Amino acid sequence: MDGFDEPLGATSNSTSTNSLFSLNKRDSYSSILDQYGEEAENEETRTECVMPDPTVLTLNCANRGRRTSVFADAPILDKTVIVLVGLPASGKSTISNHLQHYLKQTPATAHLRCKIFNAGQVRRKLSCRGRPMMLANNSSEDLFNPKNTMKKEKYAKITLEQLFGELDRDLCDVAIFDATNSTEARRAFLFHEIRSYNARLTGEFRITPMVLQVGCVNENFVKFNIHNKTFNQDYFDKPYDFAVRDFARRLTHYSSQFVAFDKLEFDRHVAEGKLVNEDTGLFWFNIVNAGLLTNVERSHFPPKCASIVKNTVSTIEAFVTGYAKIYGHQYIEQVKSFANGLSTLKASQDVSQTKRVPYSLILSEILDHDYFEQLMKTAC
Predict the structure, then answer these.
(1) Are 306 and 279 spatial neighbours (Cβ–Cβ below 8 Å)?
(2) Rounded CA gap, 210 and 99, in Å?
(3) What one-character-per-residue DSSP string does 283-306 give?
(4) Measured distance CA(297)–CA(218) in Å, rounded
(5) What is d(CA 329, CA 323) in angstroms, rounded to the nearest whole number?
(6) In what order do the strands lie in the sheet with 114-118?
(7) Which end of the chain has fewer CB atoms within 10 angstroms, the N or the C?
(8) Where in the sequence numbering do the catalytic residues fall?
(9) What separation in angstroms does the CA of 328 have from each of 10, 40, 98, 287, 315?
(10) Contacts of 190 (CB under 8 A, 6+ apart)
C-alpha cells in the first residue's frame, strides 16, 4: 500500500464527530433541532459586539484583567482558536486529541489550557438525549443531506457560542473547534465571528485564529476510519453493514459540498486582516494521510508573526511536521493489518464477548472501487 514505508509513532481510536440516524422510529429529528435552535438563538451567551462588520482578525488589546500564569517564565498568551477543516473519516478528532496532548507535554506551551469543542458531541447530546439516534423519516430530516445544511449549521453555531463563552470566562487558552467546516461560506462566517469578538471594546481577550486542515486520500485509511465510526455512539444499536452504508452515504454528501482551504482563500483572509502593528491575521497548517503525504505545504504564515504567539505557533508547527513519527506508527500498523485481513475486530473489542464479523469483507463490498470513483466525481 502507498505510504507505509516511513517509521512512525502511536495513535488513538478517537473518531470524528459527524454521524447519522437510528433505526428506532421515534420523534421527528427536525422538531428537536428546531426547538433547541430557537432557544439557543435567544440566549445571550456572548458580550455585546460593538462593530457589526470589523475588518481585522486581530487587534491590539491591553492586558485588562488577564490572569497570571502559574509558571513565572511562561506568561499567558492571548487566546488561540484552531479551526479544523476536513471531511468525515479524515482523522480530525484523533489529531485534535493528539494536539491537545502535545501542547500539554511541550514545555513552551504546557501552561496553556487547551480544550476541544466538538460539534458532533453537541449534536448527539442535544438530539439523542440519552436515547439511540433516530432514523430520518425522509430526506427533509436527513441532517447530512446537502439541502438540509441550515439545520446542521445550528449545531456548529451552538458549539461556537460555547467556545466563545469559555474564552470570555477565561476557562481555556487554546480552543480547538472540531467540525468539518467544509465550505468557504462556513469558514467566512467563523472568521467574521472571530473579528467581531476581537473588535469588542469591552473584551478582555483577543483571538489569534489558526486553520488546521486534515486530509485523507488513501482508500485504505478511509476504509479503516469508517470501520471505526461504526462503533461510535450513533451506531451502537445498528447492524455493521447498515452503519457502513449510512456513513458512506454521509461522506458522499459532505464530499459534494466540500471545498478545501487553499492558498487563495488564505491570502484573501490575510489581506483582509490588515495587520495592526505586531499583530497578525491567520495561520494555516496541513496534515494529510496521518502526516505521511509530504508533498504538500504543511504551513502558511502571514507576513508578520507577533512575539506573543510565537511559542504556540512554533509548537503547532513542530506537531504538524513531526506528526507521522510522533503519533502515526500504531495507526499505520493497524491499517496495514486490517487491509491485509489480519484483524476482524476493533482493537478495543474482546473476542470472547463479541460475535466475529467479517469486517474487511463487508467494507470491501460496500466501499469498492466504484464507490471511491463516485466519491471523486461528487467532490467540488
Answers:
(1) yes
(2) 13
(3) EEEEEEGGGT--SS--EE--S---
(4) 18
(5) 10
(6) 114-118, 174-178, 79-85, 207-215, 283-288, 299-300
(7) C
(8) 178, 216
(9) 5, 39, 10, 11, 18
(10) 83, 160, 177, 181, 209
Which secondary-structure segment (H or E) carries 215?
A: strand 207-215
Q: What are phi and psi of 145, to 5 degrees?
A: -70, 135
Give the CATH class of 29-63+73-378: alpha beta
**Which pLDDT band holds residue 16 (cuts at 50, 70, 90)?**
very low
Measured CA to CA in angstroms, residue 223 lies from 253, 261, 316, 327 at distances of 17, 24, 28, 19
Residues making up the chain, counted from first to last: 380
H/E element holding 233?
Answer: none
Q: Which residues of 70-89 are buried (b: 16+ CB within 10 A; e: fewer)?
A: eeeeeebbbbbbbbbbbbbb
Backbone conformation region of residue 302, classed left if phi is above 0, alpha if psi is from -120 to 50, else beta = beta
DSSP for 161-175, please give it.
HHHHHHHHTT--SEE
pLDDT tens figures, 79-94:
999 999 999 999 999 9
The answer to whether residue 284 scores a pLDDT higher than 90 is yes
For 25-61, the pLDDT digits (tens) are 333 333 434 444 444 444 444 433 333 344 445 433 3
240-273: pLDDT as tens digits: 998 999 899 889 988 988 999 999 999 888 777 6
Q: What angle do CA 357, 362, 364 make, to 5 degrees?
A: 140
276 confidence band (pLDDT: 50, 70, 90): very low
Specify the amino acid at residue 129. Answer: R
Q: Is residue 343 pLDDT above 70, yes or no?
A: no
- What count of other Cβ atoms lies within 10 Å of the Cβ of residue 192? 15
Give the CA dihedral 354, 357, 363, 364, nearest 10 degrees. 150
CA 36 – CA 106 distance, rounded (Å): 40
d(CA 54, CA 147): 30
- Domain boundaries along the sequence of the chain: 29-63+73-378
